[in-house]
Design a protein that fits this description.
This protein is of the alpha/beta class and 181 residues long. The protein has one domain: Flavodoxin domain (Rossmann fold, 3-Layer(aba) Sandwich). It is built from five helices and seven strands. Strands 1, 2, 3, 4 and 7 form a five-stranded mixed beta sheet that branches. A two-stranded antiparallel sheet has the order 5-6. The C terminus is likely disordered.
Length: 181
């Protein structure tokens, strides 16, 4: 299995808990026989999507930006069986660096919709990798208190950071890897 592990933490080494967690995941994948390449997005130039949809119309499948995403990362992403998106949580979500990467994968989709029995969706131009999200949050106690007391779900006295993170992660549709690692 070919895995592309993407780290969007701006911090390096001992300062990055995202990098620490990802390195252990990568080692486990390698020990299981996976061919894993780790990319630190902080070292790459990935411009923000311009929302022009040129990748859908004038140059189907190809973004207008000529940066590391277009020249290197997008092709590697397409060739991978699995993409690991490792991001610190900033304001309950992945950071802007990871969001920019994900938005730039838009060329994988066709510009029209297909209606299915259960959903309407854009068909894909080809295959894309399965996805796994790894997120890390190390919050100061003052912030944990705010989350615990002001969370909108559950018993306020029992609200935990873990519960809040799981609550927000529930919004993401995860597809099972089906034992493919």
């Amino acid at each position: 299995m070919k895995v592309l592990a993407l780290n969007s933490s701006p911090r390096k080494g001992g300062q990055s808990k995202t990098e620490l967690m990802l390195s252990h995941l990568v080692k486990g994948m390698q020990d299981a026989g996976a061919d894993v390449e780790t990319v630190h997005l902080r070292d790459k130039t990935v411009r923000n999507c311009a929302g022009c949809f040129t990748c859908w119309t004038k140059t189907p499948g190809t973004c207008i930006h000529k940066d590391d995403m277009t020249k290197e990362l997008y092709p590697k992403w397409l060739e991978s069986d699995l993409a690991v998106y490792a991001s610190p949580l900033y304001h309950f979500h992945m950071n802007a660096t990871m969001k920019a990467f994900i938005e730039r994968t838009l060329p994988v989709s066709e510009p029209f919709f297909l209606e299915g029995k259960d959903r309407t969706h854009h068909p894909l131009r080809g295959n894309h990798p399965l996805m796994v999200f790894l997120s890390v949050a190390g919050l100061p106690e003052e912030v944990v208190h705010i989350i615990a007391v002001h969370s909108k779900e559950g018993d306020l006295a029992e609200r935990t950071v873990e519960g809040t993170i799981v609550y927000h992660a529930d919004y993401i549709n995860f597809e099972s890897l089906g034992g493919k690692l």
